[in-house]
Amino acid sequence: xxxxxxxxxxxxxxxxxxxxxxxxxxxxxxxxxxxxxxxxxxxxxxxxxxxxxxxxxxxxxxxxxxxxxxxxxxxxxxxxxxxxxxxxxxxxxxxxxxxxxxxxxxxxxxxxxxxxxxxxxxxxxxxxxxxxxxxxxxxxxxxxxxxxxxxxxxxxxxxxxxxxxxxxxxxxxxxxxxxxxxxxxxxxxxxxxxxxxxxxxxxxxxxxxxxxxxxxxxxxxxxxxxxxxxxxxxxxxxxxxxxxxxxxxxxxxxxxxxxxxxxxxxxxxxxxxxxxxxxxxxxxxxxxxxxxxxxxxxxxxxxxxxxxxxxxxxxxxxxxxxxxxxxxxxxxxxxxxxxxxxxxxxxxxxxxxxxxxxxxxxxxxxxxxxxxxxxxxxxxxxxxxxxxxxxx
Length: 392
Description:
Blueprint: H1 3-7, E1 19-20, E2 25-31, E3 42-45, E4 60-65, E5 71-72, E6 74-77, E7 87-90, E8 98-107, H2 112-115, E9 120-124, E10 130-134, E11 139-143, H3 145-152, E12 165-169, H4 176-185, E13 197-198, E14 209-216, E15 219-221, E16 226-233, E17 238-250, E18 253-264, E19 269-277, E20 281-287, E21 294-298, E22 303-310, E23 313-320, E24 326-332, E25 341-347, E26 352-361, H5 370-385, E27 389-391
């Protein structure tokens, strides 16, 4: 995995030293960019604290400003599912070219803010077998093996796609369970906007927003639906999960595919870490739908964008990665239904690569033009290349 990508939103032990105080462990988070920073998740491995910090008498860990003692919302994650916390997350707000000291301290109970589930994902068996995820800005879903088999057996209601669907929400609170409930109960549909947003985004066999493909000669090949899933965490700051796919063929090349996807509070893009075997490069893409919008690419910064008219509004889609991952961009136009996509071909490093994929809906009010959407992608890319640092 590229070092810069690995560092962004994930601040590992190699980047910091920790000193002790009577109340906890003091760290300094430093912003080296001339940009204000917020909604960026610092991740600290608890095993890298001083040995006495792992006293089992404490059930939880918190984070507070070392100067004024104000507490930050934080989230603990048990990554390996062994019943012990592995990492601590928090999101500092830091002005341009400045730094702040924080205390990591033990506590008996979680604060109410730490228990809120704003970043949420789950398997959805009641709607065939989707996997859906959301935060306070955006929502997505993709499709499982039952939906695939229904299509293959000519049963109505199935979906055959490894593309990523966008649910266009325009409220800060969670909508996944609410929308599925009214769909399944027959009391409503998420295909109509009643004030919260809707699903009017067409995926089909396209890559949607961030699905992958492999180009061989002049054609792109891609997997079918995911075959297994695992939820890793839900909480106030992050949801993350794992999807595995059956090995697929790209004109004689057998490709294995696994995704670890996470979505953090305040972000419009999901973080997708791919583990792919059988090839040296892979191409995540975004659908071009009816090809009525405007594409833009920036290899130097590491992003690509598509801004299009969408029903009664407009929609921006994008992918961001470390520039050194990028081989090229490809605006692929074909007469095949749903298969016109904008692709970024990325090199794999030890069979892995990380990129970020997401969208901004004009009707949600945050991005009202292509210029504003691309400014977001550009700023995101700059922060990706210069992650927050945690130092002594």
